[in-house]
Q: What sequence folds into this?
């Protein structure tokens, strides 16, 4: 297989990893108003991702760097056309990171409340806009013969794009609440299970509508992997339902695992629906960016492949080690003891 096609799927793998890992970070942040009934419970929720959120976020940096190096035409058209949406995502991620670091720096209720609000906003905006962006990439956007995006930010806010954004918002929210249930005890754990059941039921309806619509778009575009698109959508649907069932049975580890599988299958569904394009043109199919006309030279891709073979396993091992070190639950008693020592 040509290296450009291999790198199409490597970039897809990186985005899958990002959405699974930073996805539950977004969900934890968005769940704060629902599960953080007092300062102790809010700290308990935030501390579930405290040691790992910044490591999870690096996946998008690596994905963006690989996209730039492997598919410069795709990167140029994407970042120029989706500039405002991606800028809003970047600002939201900065806002969220600053809030995690500064909310505990002053013993003031108003101070912490402001940063808690920033965490919620900084989590919800990317969760929504990533879905809007990728839905538009799959559906196709106005691109001219010189591969210039001719639309605007409002062009992206179409029914399918907004449904994609709502789907990722709800998927990440439910995924994050599963993680809170997995990593906490006491009232927060119990509340998280109830919240996941409610949000999960809504997610099933919205995600089903989005995935069915995606199948029709893939069929309309003549996607060569249509069977895999349908299979991916089916796996995502079954995994999401299974996550709900395990959540109801208080098997939070299995619920979180199936929630992660849902996101993996959903992203792969979009990736297979997109193939062999990378940005279809709604102006004229002849103007579409494809894997072949958007990729770098074979020499560049060869160097990148060797780098990936050497460094990607090391990154995965380090990430796995980090999660193993911080595998224990964040208990309420631990938070209360820490607060007593601080005061």
A:
């Amino acid at each position: 297989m040509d290296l450009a096609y291999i790198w199409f799927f490597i970039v897809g793998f990186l985005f899958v990893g990002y959405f699974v890992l930073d996805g539950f970070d977004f969900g934890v942040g968005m769940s704060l108003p629902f599960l953080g009934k007092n300062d102790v419970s809010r700290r308990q929720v935030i501390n579930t991702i405290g040691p790992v959120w910044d490591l999870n976020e690096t996946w998008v940096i690596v994905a963006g760097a690989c996209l730039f190096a492997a598919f410069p035409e795709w990167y140029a058209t994407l970042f120029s056309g989706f500039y405002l949406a991606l800028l809003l995502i970047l600002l939201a991620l900065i806002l969220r990171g600053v809030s995690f670091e500064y909310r505990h720096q002053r013993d003031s209720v108003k101070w912490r409340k402001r940063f808690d609000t920033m965490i919620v906003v900084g989590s919800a905006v990317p969760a929504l806009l990533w879905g809007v962006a990728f839905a538009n990439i799959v559906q196709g956007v106005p691109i001219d013969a010189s591969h210039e995006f001719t639309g605007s930010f409002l062009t992206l806010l179409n029914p399918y794009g907004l449904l994609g954004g709502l789907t990722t918002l709800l998927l990440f929210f439910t995924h994050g609440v599963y993680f809170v249930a997995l990593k906490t005890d006491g009232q927060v754990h119990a509340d998280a299970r109830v919240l996941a059941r409610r949000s999960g039921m809504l997610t099933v309806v919205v995600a089903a509508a989005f995935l069915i619509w995606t199948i029709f778009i893939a069929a309309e575009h003549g996607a060569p992997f249509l069977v895999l698109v349908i299979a991916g959508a089916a796996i995502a649907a079954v995994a999401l339902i299974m996550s709900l069932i395990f959540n109801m049975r208080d098997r939070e580890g299995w619920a979180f695992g199936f929630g992660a599988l849902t996101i993996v299958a959903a992203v792969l569904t979009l990736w297979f629906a997109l193939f062999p394009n990378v940005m279809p043109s709604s102006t004229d199919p002849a103007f579409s960016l494809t894997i072949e006309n958007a990729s770098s030279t074979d020499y560049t891709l060869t160097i990148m492949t060797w780098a990936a073979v050497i460094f990607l396993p090391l990154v995965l091992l380090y990430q796995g080690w980090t999660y193993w070190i911080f595998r224990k639950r964040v208990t309420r008693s631990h938070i209360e003891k820490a607060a007593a020592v601080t005061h």
